[in-house]
Automatic annotation (TrEMBL), chain A:
Pfam families noted in UniProt: PhnJ (PF06007)
GO molecular function: 4 iron, 4 sulfur cluster binding; alpha-D-ribose 1-methylphosphonate 5-phosphate C-P-lyase activity; metal ion binding
GO biological process: organic phosphonate catabolic process
Cited function: Catalyzes the breakage of the C-P bond in alpha-D-ribose 1-methylphosphonate 5-phosphate (PRPn) forming alpha-D-ribose.
Family named by the database record: Belongs to the PhnJ family.
InterPro entries: PhnJ
Record protein name field: Alpha-D-ribose 1-methylphosphonate 5-phosphate C-P lyase
Organism: Thalassovita autumnalis
EC assignment: 4.7.1.1
From TrEMBL, chain B:
Entry annotated with the keyword Transferase: yes
Gene (UniProt): phnH_1
GO BP: organic phosphonate metabolic process
SUPFAM superfamilies in the cross-refs: PhnH-like
Name this protein carries in UniProt: Alpha-D-ribose 1-methylphosphonate 5-triphosphate synthase subunit PhnH
Keyword entries, A-Z: Transferase
Length: 304, 178
């Protein structure tokens, strides 16, 4: 063994921003996260040039997966053009030389904050979700050591109690986003704050989903074809947001998840949350040829 | 304008090897392609000074040592490179992690022959219904012992390497020998 075999050639910067040891650690943890679906695996969470809580967890996973032939799409609450999404996309492209896209169908890697695209993801696509709080037990058990023990024991009674109390107090489950879901019949996870509308998209999906929390330093995953069941009582069925009948007032798309835009007169109009889907709908209405993928929801209903 | 970053050869290999490992593990039963035959690219993609490694194959030892990984006894190792299995001692000695920390369960990399030998039916996460694979040159009773030892979520994750092919089997996969 000589010194030359132990050293590497000089590079102006590490490819994909993260240094090699950071990538190896995330790789090891991603494999373990896939092996135990829904179980939170601790990882080191390195510094990236972005404040914790703005998608650093997702960013680190994306940087690890990136190579020059992976086409990347970044969305923030469904939109490709928000500041957060645009700057993450630009950063990913700049440090990896990878092409970017806004179209769900063209993307190989989709990093997302709080939404899953309306078009079905394929087997070759990977969805990376940014997670602010990976611990579904936190509202009922703030001590994370005890929460870990509860996960180990599959002791989720308090989650049910929380849902029960919401139903008793308000007549319905009030949990809007990050609806606690049982993965592979064993671990309850928070599917990051995606709306209830999106949770069924994870159930037996074709794509791999990796959820990473940078500030909380945990990674969990939902492999393809894995059961993801929202916690529900037998007599109170799971309900997605009542958006099936709404129409986007900019694109005319109907039956998808909408953003509510309050109006001066107290009423509301709606805009489709998946911005690129809206753009495609507009283009089609203007006579352009656009390709739509199969959508999870048809006519505002998820076929069971 | 900043220059477009170009991955080094090592980075390209590690990235490609990890892609293969991640796809293999998230779709058990599917055969993925490593950038080069053997375990070397797996070692390069995953191991560094933070790892404790048990390596039964003396030919792999220099590659493992070059990563700076700590050479450990079998029960303390988080990555185990067993080469071609002669007996089941390795499987018996693996660290399975704990219910508190399932991620402590070991990653076992074994050389096997894919595409011939006993037929296995796999079910579990990553598999839509069932998938059938044939894996040869593993010792008698390997799959029985694997089933007995894994107490989900405790367990070990298995990669079977045949040349540049790799097949992943996470602890969540149930294996039925047909």
């Amino acid at each position: 063994m000589s010194l030359a075999t132990l050293t590497k050639n000089w590079e102006p910067m590490s490819y994909g921003f993260l240094d090699a040891s950071a990538k190896r650690e995330i790789r090891r943890k991603m494999l373990k996260a896939v092996a135990v679906p829904g179980c939170q695996m601790p990882y080191a969470s390195r510094e990236v040039p972005m404040a914790r809580g703005w998608g650093t967890g997702g960013l680190q996973v994306s940087l690890t997966l990136m190579n020059p032939s992976k086409r990347v799409k970044v969305i923030d609450q469904g939109a490709d053009d928000s500041v957060n999404a645009a700057s993450i996309r630009r950063f990913l492209a700049r440090v990896s030389g990878a092409p970017t896209t806004l179209d769900t169908l063209e993307a190989d890697l989709i990093q997302s904050r709080h939404r899953i695209p309306e078009e079905k993801l394929r087997e070759d696509q990977v969805l990376v979700l940014q997670v602010p709080n990976p611990e579904p037990l936190r509202p009922v058990q703030p001590n994370m050591s005890i929460a870990r023990q509860m996960h180990a024991d599959a002791d989720y009674g308090r989650m049910w109690l929380q849902l029960y109390e919401q139903i008793v107090r308000s007549g319905r489950v009030m949990q809007g986003a990050s609806y606690p879901s049982l993965v592979n019949g064993r671990h309850v996870m928070t599917p990051s704050p995606i709306p209830r509308w999106d949770v069924p998209k994870l159930h037996m999906a074709k794509h791999l989903t990796i959820l990473s929390a940078g500030r909380e330093k945990r990674i969990h995953a939902v492999p393809p074809f894995t059961r993801v069941e929202p916690l529900v009582f037998d007599d109170v069925p799971y309900k997605v947001e009542d958006h099936g009948g709404l129409t986007c007032n900019r694109s005319g798309a109907k039956g998808f998840f909408m953003n509510e835009i309050p109006q001066d007169d107290g009423s509301s109009t709606y805009e489709i949350s998946d911005s690129e889907f809206g753009v495609k709908t507009i283009k089609q209405a203007e006579g352009e040829r656009v390709e739509f993928g199969e959508t999870w929801y048809t006519d505002g209903e998820m076929p069971s | 304008m900043t220059a477009i970053p170009i991955p080094s050869e090592a980075e390209r290999r590690s990235n490609q090897a990890f892609d293969a490992l991640l796809t293999a593990l998230s779709r058990p039963g599917s055969i993925q392609r490593l950038p080069q035959p053997g375990e070397a690219s797996i070692i390069e993609a995953l191991l560094d000074r933070e790892c404790r490694v048990f390596c039964a194959d003396p030919l792999l030892m220099p590659i493992v040592l070059a990563t700076g990984a700590i050479v450990a006894d079998l029960p303390a190792a988080d990555h185990v490179f067993a080469g071609a299995l002669q007996d089941l001692d390795v499987v018996n000695g693996l660290d399975l992690g704990s219910h508190l920390y399932p991620d402590d369960g070991a990653t076992l990399v074994v050389r096997a022959v894919l595409g011939q030998g006993p037929k296995l039916r796999l079910t579990g996460p990553g598999i839509e219904t069932t998938v059938e694979v044939t894996v040869g040159s593993l010792p008698e009773g390997f799959w029985d012992l694997r089933r007995q030892r894994i107490r989900y979520p405790m367990g070990f994750d298995l990669f079977l390497v045949d040349g540049d092919w790799v097949l992943g089997m996470p602890r969540s996969t149930q294996v039925e020998v047909l």
